[in-house]
Write a structure and sequence with these properties.
Blueprint lengths: L6 H5 E2 L7 E2 L4 H5 L15 H18 L5 E4 L3 H13 L5 E4 L19 E4 L4 H6 L4 E2 L3 E4 L2 H14 L3 E4 L2 E10 L5 E10 H4 L11 E4 L2 E4 L10 H8 L10 E3 L1 H11 L1 E4 L2 E3 L2 H7 L2 E2 L5 H20 E4 L2 E5 L1
Parallel strand pairs: 3-4, 3-12, 4-8, 12-15, 13-16
Antiparallel strand pairs: 1-2, 5-7, 6-7, 9-10, 10-11, 14-15, 17-18
Helix pairs in contact: 4-6, 4-11, 8-10, 9-11
The structure holds ligand 48N.
Ligand 48N binds next to helix 4, strand 9 and helix 10.
């Protein structure tokens, strides 16, 4: 006599043992119970199914994004603002964010000196209105009650956009730099590795990286942290920048407009935004005021579109100017 059908058999169609296919019929409803009186039941699962669900999706994404339209290095406030602006303006673009930390968000989870409130000077507060972050209006500036409220709202908005992929715990450890159609050195993509690998190069023999080819890179790697100002430093060592400008002392009134107005393409194919630009240019820091990050991120999105519209691209590579 055939053994009684188990919940698992019921929930999955056995396919001659080769691969279990989830049968999303009514078995789900029959097998679960959201019962908090000691009878809570989940739908049955196979461990292999969980692994396959992750592996299939992650590596399909990785395979698909080795050619992207825009790569944004750094998911801090300026990188995320750039992604939000770019992805909503151009939902056709394949935008890939590479973030070294496991936790994206950079320095925008707290205000200044580990205090929670976040100050954003007008007119940068308009982004808060656009994405639905409540704030207290103090006239010349606004205050978000917790910096994490801004960052988590912006992050969830960006991650929900179908054309945005974020690979966190992944570091950009070099740039692809080629001679382009005009004979100039052009940044043409990024070189990546798992961050834990990138940080362990001194302890293991060479653990080679991966690549992502794209016509436009926005670098927003900040000014501190284990890899702060990564791209600016790499431009110096690669001979595309004579020397680092090094961030100057704090001056809120001078630094924030300078940062927004100077956000630009610092090398062919490479736009720099946020505090990394202060290190590149040698401009002032602003301390715990985040309007400059927002403005710089939005300007970087405009710059990325300007560059994309000025070149012809084949398979992620710039082949000529328009
Ligand atoms: O938040 P950050 O550090 O950078 P920004 O420019 O988005 O925002 C800066 C802002 O938080 C301030 O510093 C404030 C306004 N203070 C100013 C002041 O005067 O002190 O985000 C950069 C992100 C981080 O999440 C890093 O983990 C990431 O970039 N990152 C990288 N990701 C991938 N590959 C790398 N090589 C890399 N380097 C940094």
């Amino acid at each position: 006599m055939a053994p009684a059908q188990t919940l698992t058999d019921k929930f999955f169609e056995k396919d001659s043992g080769k691969q279990l296919k989830p049968n999303k019929a009514n078995a789900y409803e029959d097998s679960v119970a959201e019962n908090y009186n000691g009878k809570y039941r989940f739908a049955p699962i196979q461990e292999a199914e969980v692994s396959r669900a992750m592996i299939k999706r992650y590596f399909k994404t990785l395979y698909d994004r080795v050619i992207s339209d825009v790569v944004i290095i750094g998911a801090g406030s300026s990188g995320l603002t750039c992604a939000s602006q770019l992805a909503s303006t151009r939902p056709d673009l394949k935008i890939t964010i590479i973030e070294a930390n496991v936790a994206p968000g950079g320095g925008a989870w707290l205000g200044g000196q580990l205090m929670t409130a976040m100050v954003i000077r007008k007119p940068a507060h308009q982004l808060l209105q656009e994405i639905g972050v409540p704030f207290e209006d103090e006239g010349a500036y606004v205050v978000v009650k917790h910096a994490a409220l801004f960052t988590s709202t912006l992050l969830s908005r960006v991650l929900a956009m179908p054309n945005v992929v974020m690979m966190n715990a992944t570091a950009v450890e070099d740039l692809i730099i080629v001679e382009d159609y005009a004979g100039q050195q052009r940044v043409a993509g990024v070189v990546t590795n798992w961050t834990l690998v990138a940080l362990s190069h001194d302890t293991q023999s060479c653990m080679d990286p991966n690549t992502i080819t794209c016509p436009v890179i926005v670098s927003a790697t900040g000014h501190d942290g284990p890899m702060g100002a990564f791209t600016a430093k790499r431009l110096v060592s690669a001979g595309l920048l004579k020397e680092l400008g090094n961030m100057r002392g704090l001056d809120m009134n001078r630094s924030e407009p300078t940062m927004v107005n100077n956000t630009r393409e610092v090398a062919p194919g490479l736009i720099m935004a946020g505090m990394e630009l202060s290190e590149h240019d040698g401009s002032n820091r602003m301390g715990p005021s985040f309007g400059g990050m927002i403005g710089s991120g939005i300007k970087a999105a405009h710059e990325a579109l300007r560059v994309l519209e000025s070149v012809n691209v084949v398979e992620g590579k710039v082949v000529s100017s328009v």
